[in-house]
Design goal:
The protein is mostly beta strands and about 120 residues long. The protein has a single domain (about 5-120), classed as Roll (2,3-Dihydroxybiphenyl 1,2-Dioxygenase, domain 1), CATH 3.10.180. The protein contains 2 helices and 8 strands, in the order βαββββαβββ. The protein has helices spanning about 15-25, 80-85, and strands at about 5-10, 30-35, 40, 55-60, 70-75, 90-100, 105-110, 115-120. The strands form 2 sheets. The protein has a 4-stranded mixed beta sheet with strand order 1-4-3-2, covered by helices on one side. A 4-stranded mixed beta sheet has the order 5-8-7-6. The radius of gyration is 14 Å and the shape is globular.
């Protein structure tokens, strides 16, 4: 096994609001995909080169939560860049950029849907 994770989904109650938030966070378009049970948007990922991706989803059975599993999104070269966009996009930083020794840095935020999500970078 190369990676412990191969896909993730972030629940949304308001797909348009969540899409706008993550587009602002990553400064990238969230591509909408067909999803018969609701709405689905793909977060940026280089799937052609072994990247791990995920999406935002609004559908029955997908409920945002600030408890449970935390997904760490790629903060790029320096997570300060996307982290600085969280509050302007409607989210809230709940754990500022924090050093984790030789493993780089992490930060936690609440998205517009009420999910606790994290960012990671080496700088």
């Amino acid at each position: 096994m190369t990676n412990a994770i191969n896909w993730f989904e972030i629940p949304a109650t308001d797909f348009a609001r969540a899409k706008k938030f993550y587009e602002a966070l990553f400064d990238a378009e969230i591509m909408e995909m067909p999803f018969p049970a609701g709405k689905y948007g793909m977060l940026p990922a280089d799937m052609q080169n072994g990247g791990i991706g995920g999406g935002i989803v609004q559908a029955d059975g997908f409920e945002p939560s600030d408890k449970g599993t935390v997904v760490y999104l790629n903060g790029g070269d320096d997570l300060s860049v996307p982290l600085s966009k969280v509050e302007a996009a409607g989210g809230k930083v709940v754990l500022p950029k924090t050093a984790i020794g030789p493993n780089g840095f992490m930060a936690h935020f609440m998205d517009t849907e009420g999910n606790r999500v994290a960012l990671h970078s080496m700088k």
